[in-house]
Design goal:
Low-confidence stretches: none
Helix content: 40-55%
Number of strands: 2
Number of domains: 1
Largest sheet: 2 strands, parallel
CATH class: Alpha Beta
Mean pLDDT: 92
Strand order of the largest sheet: 1-2
CATH topology: Rossmann fold
Distance between the termini: 31 Å
Amino acid sequence: MRYRDLDRASTALAQALVAHGVRGGDVVAVALPRGFDLLVALVAVQRAGAAYVPLDPEDDSARRADM
């Protein structure tokens, strides 16, 4: 993983989040296993001006829906 890769991927995802209506002050749930994709998602949410709630991807869907 290079910083350049993280920068490009997180910028693209942040732009997609904003295009889908994510704004500053919003909260975005993130349920991904640890790895590059999780890092990209967390940085992208912050770049979009939102906050994130990390969810355990191994929790059942009912628990994630409650959160």
